[in-house]
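Practice problem: predict the structure.
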Amino acid sequence: MSAAAPTVDAGVGAPAKKGKKKLIIIIAAAVLLLVVLGGAALLLLKKKAAHDADGADEATTAQAEHGSKPDLKHPPTFLPLDPFVVNLADKEADRYAQVGITLEVEDAKFAEQMKAFMPAIRNGILMILAHKNSRELLERAGKEQLAAEILRESARTMGIEVEEPEAADDKADDEDKPKAKVKKKARKVAAEPNPIKHVHFSNFIVQ
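Answer:
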């Protein structure tokens, strides 16, 4: 009786094929993950670059609005005023504002000159504040407009004629007008160099 021929298990090659398929799937998943992560990283870098560019533009705009880069060898002179507490012009309710103001002037000599006019300067600032309402002062644009009015009034008290601060409504109207007319309007104002450079708020409470 002859020995039985060895039988071959047909399932021996299956695990090897399954293992290869599994490895291919894992590699494909890893590659896909890397692609997704790379795309996300690229998107974040683009957003960061755009944000940095916007920040640079804002800084440049702010610098243009407030003058050139400060000279660290010749720092400006700051003249702090006593705090202002004034009733506002609200009709619906009694509201008041407590405002701390510091004037930035070109030099210490002019700051000393301003002290002699301080009662009149404070009176002018109080009159401006008393005509404001809480809605105006709670908005950034309202604070910026207030600073421009204070700067002009303080200079006028010292006998310095400066450009009339433009109200927000006037700016909106000018945007709708031809540029030639806007420039013509600007040329009508004869302004002197103002030794009062900026108005800074050290405290601003509206209640």
